[in-house]
Amino acid sequence: MKKILRVLDANANRAMEGIRVVEEIARFILEDPKLTAETKTLRAQLKQAVSCLKAEKSREAGKDIGARLYTESEGKRKNLSDIFKSNIKRGQEALRSLEEFSKLIDASLGKKFKALRFKLYEIETMMEPKVLKAVKLDFEVYLVTDPMRDHIKIVKEAIKAGIKIVQLRDKFASKAKYLQLAKKVQKLTRQAGVVFIVNDSVEVAKKVDADGVHLGQKDGNPKKARKILGPDKLIGVSTHNLAEALKAQRAGADYIAIGNIFETPSKPGKNGIGAQKLKVISEKLKVPVVAIGGINRNNISKIKAVGIDRVAAIRGALDLLKSA
C-alpha cells in the first residue's frame, strides 16, 4: 500500500503544479477573470480531494527515480502555447492516475478525480484559442504589404529580417489574383512560423487557412468573421476614433488598429490624430492596440512614450523592426 500512496502523492503534486501554471497563464497573460476563477476553484477542489488520501506521509523524494530524469523535450519550450499544452496535459494525466489508484483506497474518490479531470478538459477548450491568439499577438512591428511593390519580395525580405506578423493588402488585385497571392504568402509565412493576416477578405482568409483577417470599417462584421474563421483566428479592425474602437471591441476584435497617427502617403489629405489622442483611445480599450500611419524611426519614440508597444507600417516596417 505504501507504493500506491507514493504514486498518489506524486500525481497529486503533478496535477497541482500543472494546474497552477495554467492558472498563472489565465491570470497574468490572458488577464481573464473567469478562467482565473475556474482554475483557482479547480485547484482548491483538488487540494480538498487529495487531503482525503493522506498520501504525503509516504513521500520519499530522495528515492524517486523520476527526480533524476530530465528529457530533452522537457527542457524546451518554444512559446506560451507549448507551456500551456504541456501543463494542461500534465494535470489531466495526473488526474487520471489519481482517479485509478485512489480506487484502491476509497472508491468514491475515483469519481471525484474523474469529475476534476473533465473540468480540466473544459478549461482547456476555453483557454486554448485564447492562448494561441496571445502567441500570435506577441509582436512589436506589423508589416502591411504595399500593392505598389512585389508582395512576395516584400514578405521574403521581412521574414529574413525577423518579422513576426505580415498582412497581405492589395485593394487593386482581382479576387482570383488576390487568392493566388494569399496562397503564396501563406506558404512562405507558414514555413517561417510567421503570423499571416489577410486584409479585407474573410473568404480568402478561410480558403488559405490564414492566421486571421483584418477588417476596415466597410469590410464586414467581426462577429460574422468569427463564425466563419473560428475561435483561434485573429480578427483585427481598423479604427479612427474612440467610438469605432469601442464598437470593434464589443464585436469581438482581438486587436484594434488605430490611425492614422501621423500624416502618411497612403492616406493623402488626412491629418494624423497624434500620439496623445492615440493614448486617450487606447486607455479605454481592453484589447491590444496597434498604431498605424506615418510611423517611422524618427517618431516611434512618441508612440512608445504613450504606452503603445505594437506598430504597423506599409513603408519603413523593416527600419522599424531594426529600431524595435
From TrEMBL:
Residues 141-316 form the Thiamine phosphate synthase/TenI domain. It comes from the Bacteria. One of its GO terms (molecular function) is thiamine-phosphate diphosphorylase activity. It holds the Pfam family TMP-TENI. InterPro entries: Aldolase_TIM, ThiamineP_synth_sf, ThiamineP_synth_TenI, ThiD2, TMP_synthase, TMP_synthase_cyanobac_bac. Its cofactor is Mg(2+). The keyword Magnesium applies. Mg(2+) binds at D200, D219. CDD domains: TMP_TenI. 4-amino-2-methyl-5-(diphosphooxymethyl)pyrimidine binds at Q167, L168, R169, D170, K171, N199, S238, K267. Its EC number is 2.5.1.3. GO terms for cellular component: cytoplasm. Residues 6-125 form the ThiD2 domain. Binds 1 Mg(2+) ion per subunit. Belongs to the thiamine-phosphate synthase family. HAMAP family: TMP_synthase. This is Thiamine-phosphate synthase. It comes from candidate division WOR-1 bacterium RIFOXYC2_FULL_46_14.
